[in-house]
Amino acid sequence: MALKVNTPLVSVDWLFQYLDHKSLLILDATIPKVGSKNIVQAEEKFQIKNALFFDLNFFSDAKAPLPNTILPENEFEAKAAEFGINTGSCIVVYDDLGMYSSPRVWWMFHLMGFKNIAVLDGGFKEWKAKNYPTEKPTNRKLKLGNFKANYQSQKVKFTNDVLENIETENSVLLDARSEGRFFGTEPEPRKDVKGGHIPKSISLPHTDILSGNKMKSTVELRSIFQTKNTQNKPMIFSCGSGITASVLALGAEIAGIKNHSVYDGSWTEWGTTANLPIDI
Fold first, then answer.
1. 126 with 98: CB under 8 angstroms?
2. What per-residue confidence (pLDDT) applies to 101?
3. DSSP 8-state code for residue 278
4. pLDDT at position 82 over 60
5. Angstrom distance (rounded) from CA 172 to CA 225
6. Residues 6+ apart with CB under 8 A from 137
7. Considering 239, 249, 254, 262, which one is annotated as catalytic?
8. Is the pLDDT of residue 40 over 80?
9. How far apart are CA 225 and CA 75, in angstroms?
10. The whole model's pTM is what?
């Protein structure tokens, strides 16, 4: 019997219960936090038992000038199949930081029309705290999968969409960066990126929807998004390069909000493109 996830978030207890299910695929999507120094970890790397490392660089467009740019539909489909992902796979994705890069993978698969995927609440930190089984990373590779993409264009926005929205205000743009970066009082971690924010956007740091390493409750999430979007307009999420914007997208989905999208280029694109309006 195929394993299904009915929510975008699963607990470590749920994952432990189904750890050896034949259709389960566990992905470690850990990346360094933007702005952190590339220091060799003092501790040896471990992962959840049976996990595979999901390289976000491999699943991003290497030809694009911006980091973490989404792949075209056909390329994502080919790479997912090469990775061993099937249409009947049940995917749980996590990262070592708790709730940072794993929602990006969740969003990418939803963008490609695949919904049987969930993020592990609390990530590896929560798994480790429960003393659930871990192992050293291996080079295990699955057989060629039969993954098929079904691109959902409404889930992603581009610079022209965001520029138009400044005039129309049809959607609410929420920025997942810190308030310091939003108001230009702290430097951007990427070189040559201006400070400030997109006009008429609203600050909602991704950490505001988290409680430690885990996502806040559904009730709390609904309240947060309602406070930021009192007119219940469609929402566009932005950040530095699309990573923490996906945390907001996950939070919105958990809150039962369906009409939302991610600005893929986010502030890295906006803050390096000439002649785009910027507020401080």
1. yes
2. 98
3. -
4. yes
5. 11
6. 28, 45, 46, 47, 51, 53
7. 239
8. no
9. 34
10. 0.96
Residue 267: closest CA among 239, 246, 244:
239
Distance of CA 127 to the CA centre of its chain: 19
Residue with tokens 């979007």: 229
Region for 100 from its dihedrals, namely left if φ exceeds 0, alpha if ψ lies in -120 to 50, beta otherwise: alpha
- The model's pLDDT over 179-214, given as tens digits with 9 standing for 90+, comes to 999 999 999 999 899 999 999 999 999 999 999 999
Residue type, 120: L
CB 105 within 8 A of CB 40: no
Question: How many angstroms separate the CA atoms of 49 and 51, rounded?
Answer: 6
Burial class (CB in 10 A: 0-12, 13-18, 19+), 66: middle
Q: Is 239 annotated in the active site?
A: yes
State how far the alpha carbon of 56 is from the alpha carbons of 19, 123, 125, 268, in Å.
23, 17, 20, 17
| Phi, psi dihedrals of residue 65, rounded to the nearest 5° | -75, -15
Residue 139 confidence (pLDDT):
82
Listed residue (56, 109, 91) closest to 241, CA to CA: 56
> Please, what is the Cα angle at 123 between 108 and 82, to 5 degrees?
40
Q: Where are the beta strands (DSSP E) in the chain?
A: 9-10, 24-28, 47-48, 52-53, 90-94, 117-120, 134-135, 156-157, 172-175, 202-203, 210-211, 214-215, 235-238, 260-263
What domains can be seen in the chain, in order of their start residue?
9-151 (3.40.250.10), 154-270 (3.40.250.10)
DSSP 273: S
List of residues 6+ apart from 176 with CB closer than 8 A: 204, 205, 206, 237, 238, 239, 244, 245, 247, 248
Q: Is residue 15 a contact partner of residue 92, using CB atoms and an 8 Å limit?
A: yes
